[in-house]
Design a protein that fits this description.
Layout lengths: L3 H6 L1 H11 L1 E5 L5 E5 L4 E3 L2 E11 L2 E8 L2 E8 L7 E6 L3 E8 L20 E9 L8 E6 L8 E6 L5 E9 L2 E6 L7 E5 L4 E6 L5 E4 L3 H13 L16 H25 L5 H20 L15 H11 L11 H14 L9 H11 L7 H23 L3 H8 L3 H12 L1 H9 L4 H14 L9 H19 L5 H10 L3 H19 L20 H9 L6 E7 L4 H7 L2 H10 L5 E7 L4 H10 L7 E5 L2 H11 L6 E5 L5 E3 L9 H11 L1
Parallel strand pairs: 9-15, 17-18, 18-19
Antiparallel strand pairs: 1-2, 1-8, 2-3, 3-4, 4-5, 5-6, 6-7, 7-8, 9-12, 10-11, 10-13, 13-14, 15-16, 17-20, 20-21
Length: 669
């Protein structure tokens, strides 16, 4: 189709001419891939072009390329034989001497250009390619290390009948990605920038040619990963079998080996670009920082195991080696998340106490003149509550309780007296409506506080903060209150990062304002609060559904796996409806979930329809029902027969797709 114009004019001559030019042509000055001439199209300037005219006569020729309304004329001076350079002059980009290559040679000129200052605006890049051995619906998978997402973004694109593909990927600043051209081929690591355009050609000999402003960098990274990569760093899950000192030694030994390999490889390739060396060294440091910080997941929280001072000093030193562009290596943010969690949550429990939050609110806004001693007492009071609850969960003996609580008791008593002061009590009652908003603000502040003493670039600090804010928005599925947005403005001085967070805020504001379809499917759960018996609560929920097959989902807005499973529900219900199998009622029981978040989840995942029933239970009723049903993990799925009996406690989940639809279809027959 693409070559119809010139084939119609002189098909035999055109075919012969293309065979003379077919292949990849590299610029002789820097060995960069510049032209690709193939049977049905050409590749040039990161773009696929149609042939409009081809005219080759001995040592000279002309090719006219077309892309939509755009046309380009190429004038060629051909080599005498199959080898030798060819001179190609375009009417727009000047003249270049190129040589046909079966394998891509290395760059022959040093490049000491550093990375440009990072633009943290949310943007996109284009990846295109030609896979001559994958013509027609082969799948190319692209994983993007999107900096403000805790999970990698995965995109899939199919090749067309000629073996070409093209897709747009999201980026923020300099962003790393991996391209899986075929299931059997190893991943291809690439670096992308905003408005970047990367073109690649994967030949049958395993060679990959790249075109674009970061083509050289990506070719170098690919070479270094194939020829100078250290053995994989041991998985941090295995670190639980080592002492802290042994694990630190293992990681630092790996770093020394990786540094040496990089140094040796750079000496053997003197033209290796500064940007490649920067990226590889940055990745080594980030991997080591992540390995050490993620070791906190294996600490025994029951025994209050903590890192020693020497271990923390090593971690701090590694984290402080992060250099812009800070979006380059996602392991930095992974390390900072673990580091923040370790410092912000010394105990596995946190007890919310309104008086503690309101004390901070009154002090911050100058509404009451708390002394330094009083502020310290309130802080120790909060820590003492956490410790007391932790000891209760452990069923600790009296001696352990006395020892652990000793540092807090005097301060807790003074704090309780402070809370009872008439002036303080009056102000707390007056500003009680600020409690939830200020508690959320303090939780976010607590996550950012551990980074304050680290000597790291402001860019990295703010990037981490933006990731914390967006993660909490997506976790709550509700917009931030004014007190939190005002706090965010003081933290994010980079307008691009602030705009990104603000767009997520606006999304949840709009979602909150949207009407909820099938509002009648939301049941009034307040009637359950007065029922003492958990068995009667359960009967009250399921008895109206008698005569139906019920698929029950017990979930919470705070549960990531619950929401991930819900992504598959609309397609599941549509499949059942298409086949006339709509006799199943989907019962959703939400527990420990704020009302606004609950309603927004239902909207976002399109969960309300005539065959659904929704309850959002109070905390007390949630506790009763969990105990009655023996629920200890989320999401929990139950299948209830037409007589209200639970007949399956482990049915397929929504993400199981056809397995669940087949299962439900059999039950309704």
């Amino acid at each position: 189709m693409l070559c119809a114009l010139w084939l119609h004019v002189c098909p035999l001559q055109a075919a012969d001419d293309i065979r003379r030019m077919a292949g990849c042509w590299n610029d002789t000055t820097d060995n960069s891939w510049t032209y690709g001439f193939f049977e049905h199209f050409a590749i040039w300037q990161n773009t696929f072009w149609e042939y409009e005219k081809i005219s080759l006569h001995r040592k000279k020729g002309e090719i006219i390329l077309r892309n939509g309304d755009e046309r380009v004329r190429l004038k060629l001076k051909l080599p005498k034989g199959d080898g030798g350079p060819c001179t190609i002059a375009s009417d727009r980009y000047g003249t270049s001497a190129v040589c046909r290559q079966d394998t891509l040679p290395t760059a022959n000129r040093p490049d000491n250009t550093p990375f440009a200052p990072n633009n943290l605006r949310a943007d996109s890049a284009v990846i295109q390619g030609y896979l001559p051995d994958c013509k027609g619906q082969a799948t190319v998978r692209i994983s993007v290390d999107y900096p403000l997402s805790e999970d990698r973004i995965t995109l899939e694109v199919s090749t067309d009948s000629l073996g070409r593909f093209a897709t747009t990927v999201p980026v923020i600043g300099v962003t790393a990605a991996s391209i899986h051209l075929t299931p059997d081929e190893p991943h291809l690591p690439v670096i992308l920038e905003p408005r970047d355009s990367l073109m690649l050609y994967a030949g049958s000999n395993g060679q990959v040619f790249m075109m674009g402003r970061n083509a050289r960098l990506n070719q170098e990274i690919r070479y270094m990963e194939e020829h100078a990569a250290p053995r994989p760093l041991p998985d941090w899950h295995a670190a639980g079998q080592m002492t802290l000192a042994a694990w630190k030694a293992t990681v630092l030994d790996w770093k020394q080996t990786a540094d040496s390999l990089l140094t040796d490889a750079a000496e053997k390739r003197p033209a290796l670009s500064q940007r490649c060396r920067h990226y590889l060294q940055d990745r080594i440091n980030a991997l080591c920082a992540a390995a050490l910080t993620e070791r906190s997941a294996t600490l025994s929280r029951r025994h209050l195991e903590r890192f020693d001072a020497a271990y923390l000093h090593t971690v701090d030193s590694l984290l402080e080696q992060a250099q812009p562009p800070c979006t380059l290596t996602r392991e930095w943010l992974e390390a900072l998340r673990s580091y923040s969690h370790y410092h912000a949550m010394p105990l596995p429990v946190h007890v919310f106490k309104g008086e503690v939050t309101l004390t901070d609110y009154l002090a911050h806004n100058g509404l009451y003149p708390f002394t330094t001693q009083e502020r310290s007492d309130v802080e120790l009071y909060s820590k003492g509550l956490d410790m007391a609850t932790f000891l209760d969960n452990l069923n600790a003996d009296s001696l352990t309780r006395a020892t652990r609580m000793a540092p807090y008791l005097a301060a807790m008593k003074r704090a309780e007296n402070l809370f009872r002061k008439p002036a303080v009590r009056r102000l707390m009652d007056q500003h009680r409506d600020k409690t939830d908003a200020w508690e959320l603000r303090n939780e976010l502040k607590k996550q950012l506080k551990p980074l304050e003493h680290l000597q790291m670039p402001t860019e990295m600090r703010e990037l981490f903060a933006a990731s914390v804010f967006t993660a909490r928005l997506d976790y709550n599925k509700a917009p931030f209150p004014t007190e939190v947005t005002e706090y965010i403005q003081t933290i994010l001085t980079d307008c691009n990062l602030y705009d990104y967070v603000d767009r997520r805020q606006q999304y949840y504001q709009q979602l909150t304002r949207q009407p909820l379809p099938c509002e009648e499917t939301l049941k009034d759960a307040s009637a359950l609060d007065s029922i003492e018996s958990a068995a009667r609560i359960w009967d009250h929920i399921v008895s109206p559904l008698k005569g139906k097959i019920v698929y029950a989902d017990i979930w919470g807005t705070w549960c990531g796996p619950c929401k991930w499973q819900m992504e598959a529900v609309p397609a599941l219900k549509a499949s059942l409806k298409r086949e006339g199998e709509d006799g199943v009622v989907f019962l959703y029981i939400s527990i420990f979930s704020p009302e606004e978040s609950w309603r927004n989840v239902l909207k976002e995942y399109h969960l309300t329809d005539p065959n659904s029933v929704h309850y959002n239970l109070s905390d007390e009723v949630s506790q009763k029902l969990m105990k009655h049903l023996g629920i200890s993990c989320f999401p929990t799925y139950l299948v209830i027969d037409r007589e209200n009996n639970i007949i399956d406690r482990h049915p397929p989940a929504p993400q199981d797709g056809s397995k669940l639809t087949d299962y439900l279809r059999q039950l309704t027959r």
